[in-house]
Amino acid sequence: MTLNILFFSVSINKRKITGEDALRQEKARKVYSDNKAQQVVIHRMI
């Protein structure tokens, strides 16, 4: 009889975000949403 057990641990650490990182993430989200909106417009024209 073989008993195989997988042991693992998960650790969660809160990340500290600097002002520059937050600004960069916000710009990236805006660019992503703008591109997504543009794709919808182009798709509707087809």
TrEMBL record:
Pfam families: Bac_small_YrzI
Domain of life: Bacteria
Keywords: Plasmid
InterPro entries xrefs: YrzI
Annotated protein name in UniProt: YrzI family small protein
